[in-house]
Design brief:
Layout lengths: L4 E5 L3 H13 L4 E5 L3 H9 L5 E2 L12 E4 L6 H8 L8 E4 L5 H9 L7 E5 L20 E6 L5 H13 L3 E4 L2 H29 L5 H5 L3 H5 L7 H10 L1 H23 L3 H16 L13 E6 L6 H11 L4 E6 L10 E5 L2 H13 L3 E4 L1
Parallel strand pairs: 1-2, 1-4, 2-3, 4-5, 7-8
Antiparallel strand pairs: 6-7, 9-11, 9-12, 10-11
Helix pairs in contact: 6-10
Length: 365
Amino acid sequence: MNTLTCGFIGLGLIGGSIAKAIKSHIPSSRLIAYDINTDSLELAYKEQVIDQICPAIDASFSSCDYLFLCAPVSHNDENLLTLKPYLSPDTILTDVGSVKTGIHRHIEALNLQSQFIGGHPMAGSERFGYQNSYASLLENAYYILTPSDTVPQEKVTAYQTLTASIGAIPLVLTCEEHDYVTAAISHLPHVIAASLVNLIKKSDSKEGIMKMIAAGGFKDITRIASSSPAMWQQICLTNTENISALLKTYIQYLTVLSSYLDRKDKDALYLLFDTARTYRDSFTNSSNGPIKAEYVLTVDIADKPGAIATLAVLLAKHQVSIKNIGINHNRELAEGALRIEFYDKNAAEAAVNILTEHNYRIHRR
């Protein structure tokens, strides 16, 4: 059986996590990588994640079965031009960008569509860089594949098998379907969250009362407004038509909702919240979505000195890391006095078990 060889152009959070997942699940694989950040390459080599450091985009990549374009999207065009003379026709070329139509157009311009399958692992972190990558980042996350029209089906099937083998859930869409879907469930929500935060900023009193009590539900629904402005600027500029069309539809819907309020239409208002609740409750929790999940518990604690420290020490003794901790001053929509955020699901589950054993009352979201 031939050794699986994978190349990476860019080895940051996503590229590094894919590389670690492949090496973890397919130990016999051979991984090579190029990145302008040589520290990342040296660390990956030291950790035995990659087997070869490439000082440039060169003939080293001609032996790859899969070649992952994981550099920033703005560098893809230049990297592809450099890479093309060294590409084997048998190589499956892919990327990890969150907007697909643009890269597909560039691939067609370079006549590489017969070997290109766009990829979008729908996982991420607020942290970045290879040093923060980890193999389990992709576990149970949808990994969307957008094959070009002329790529052979056996290559699509092979890529599906690879993504499934590293714990992800492969889903095949056209690039147009992908960009419309992600505009609706990821890109538009970020635009709405940012605009809602700015609305509160402009509407607040000079004393900042709104900001002071903006906890609980408001912070939950606007959490994604803390994302990278540069990244979301570029997404809006590359998936503009879909985001704009959906935003116009949303504005029309809000206008209808405004009319319900103006005429105090109690039946329409009830239906609004009831249908939303029913549909929202039908969402699956079995996989990661495009908007990164939070792992949060709220806990009832006594209002006395040392109560928070006692809880924190208890979790630390059991090697459970806390990402963030704070008091819920506004508990209109959330029970519990202490809000604790964890880095991952395993830490949150461990905390539940530990705190329950010590008779803390826990409220899960």
